[in-house]
Write a structure and sequence with these properties.
Radius of gyration: 15 Å
Strand order of the largest sheet: 2-4-5-7-6
Strand content: 15-25%
Helix content: 25-40%
Number of helices: 4
Largest sheet: 5 strands, mixed
Number of strands: 7
Length: 169
């Protein structure tokens, strides 16, 4: 477990130099593989995973880091949803805003900040290590971004990830 934490922390630290190198990762391209995989994993639940990410929206950073952040957020949403997960992407100035909504039980307001720290989980009965959201937070902050948890219009939780945008040429 310690090696995993050290690996992810070192990786997050190195991401800052990647952000300044002009690296670019398509949000839509990253999402494609996740949807197929998650729908297969949760096939017995007839889970619907919807993606609304324009091809022109890109993250200024490494594809592996984007995959790590999106993978954790989508996996969490799928585990807790009743039937639907939706990822939307919008551009706000120099930022890309990615929201992941689910129709599950949500996260209590008092727990929303706490679950961003390593080892803290909102549901101790569910599988997981309590590292996913902490990794997302660390990576987002390394790139000058942020993550917040809110109530979703779908009834469950909403993760709002803000990252630097990269123009697609």
């Amino acid at each position: 477990m310690r090696r995993q934490i050290d690996y992810h922390l070192a990786h997050a630290r190195s991401a800052a130099s990647a952000a300044s190198s002009g690296a670019r990762a398509s949000i839509a391209a990253s999402c494609e593989g996740f949807v197929r995989t998650l729908e297969r994993i949760h096939a017995e639940r007839d889970l619907s995973v919807e993606i609304d990410a324009p091809a022109s929206h890109a993250f200024r950073g490494q594809r592996e880091d984007l995959d790590e952040m999106l993978g954790n957020l989508l996996d969490n949403a799928c585990k807790r949803s009743s039937a639907r997960v939706r990822l939307t992407c919008s551009r706000e100035g120099e930022r890309i805003v990615i929201t992941v909504d689910d129709d599950g039980p949500g996260i209590e307001p008092l727990m929303r900040e706490a679950v961003m720290w390593r080892g803290i989980r909102a549901d101790e009965a569910a599988q997981g290590s309590g590292l996913g959201l902490a990794i997302v937070r660390d990576l987002a902050e390394t790139y000058g971004g942020s993550i917040s948890l809110e109530e979703s219009p779908m009834g469950g939780a909403r993760a709002r990830l803000t990252l630097p945008a990269q123009d697609v040429v």
